[in-house]
């Protein structure tokens, strides 16, 4: 348990019957008249939904302990992604639903942050950008190069993104894991 006076960004609270909410931002407000209160912006850990919630100052709130560990993606086992803890070498099977969009950028050997609460995997978080090889893309047409257009390209993970016309099959590129945007070529 913690008081609303102790809130910090990133802290995870257990509210509304055990649902986990992460504190995005908070503000202590002391109006001229009436009691002080705390205005917060909370993000649901599983769904990502963001809500505004106000608490009276000093109210007790239940906190949740989230265990975030860097783990290495090993392989797919049916519908499960198998991650290995690099310190204990324990293997963890993570459901496809918990991996979410990170699955579009995972290849063997990648390190991801796996967040757990009471043994249950909540989500898998990748770095903001990863380097992947383009498995296939059509060649750019000679006259199109100056227009700054884009074309579809399939990454080595099977995920398809838009890349500039000058990018070719076999090139290593940097991709934003949050938006699937092309960030640039990687020089070997």
UniProtKB/TrEMBL annotation:
PANTHER family: ELONGATION FACTOR P, ELONGATION FACTOR P (EF-P) FAMILY PROTEIN
PROSITE patterns: EFP
Residues in Elongation factor P C-terminal domain copies: 130-185
Top-level division of the source organism's lineage: Bacteria
Pathway: Protein biosynthesis; polypeptide chain elongation
Cited Pfam families: EFP, EFP_N, Elong-fact-P_C
Signal peptide from the UniProt entry: none
InterPro entries reported in the protein's UniProt record: Elong-fact-P_C (IPR015365), NA-bd_OB-fold (IPR012340), Rib_uL2_dom2 (IPR014722), Transl_elong_fac_P/YeiP (IPR020599), Transl_elong_KOW-like (IPR013185), Transl_elong_P/YeiP_cen (IPR001059), Transl_elong_P/YeiP_CS (IPR013852), Transl_elongation_fac_P (IPR011768)
Protein's cellular compartments: Cytoplasm
CDD domains: S1_EF-P_repeat_1, S1_EF-P_repeat_2
Molecular-function GO terms, alphabetical: translation elongation factor activity
Species assigned in the record: Streptomyces roseus
GO biological process: peptide biosynthetic process
NCBIfam families: efp, PRK00529.1
Annotated Gene Ontology cellular component terms: cytosol
Translation elongation factor P/YeiP central domain location: 68-122
HAMAP family: EF_P
Name this polypeptide is given: Elongation factor P
Function: Involved in peptide bond synthesis. Stimulates efficient translation and peptide-bond synthesis on native or reconstituted 70S ribosomes in vitro. Probably functions indirectly by altering the affinity of the ribosome for aminoacyl-tRNA, thus increasing their reactivity as acceptors for peptidyl transferase.
Family: Belongs to the elongation factor P family.
Keywords: Cytoplasm, Elongation factor, Protein biosynthesis
